[in-house]
Amino acid sequence: MHYQIDLGPWGGIFAVPTCVVDKHLKLASGLALKVLLLLLRTQIPLSAEEIATRLGQSQGDVRDALAYWEQAGLLSPQEAPPLEGQLAPTPVPLASSQTATPAEPSQEGRSQEERQKVIRVGSKQKLDRREVLSIIKRDERLSGLIDEAQQIMGKPLTSAEMETIASLYSYYGLAADFILMVIQYCCSIGRANMRYVEKTAASWVDLGIDTHEKAEQHILKLTDLHSKENQVRSAFGIGERSLIPKEEKFINTWFNDYGFDIAMIRLAYERTVEKIGKLSFPYIDSILSSWYKKGIKTPRQASEESRPQQAPADSPKHAPSRSTSYDLDQIEKMIYSDYLSK
Question: Are 132 and 8 in contact (CB under 8 A)?
Answer without folding.
Answer: no
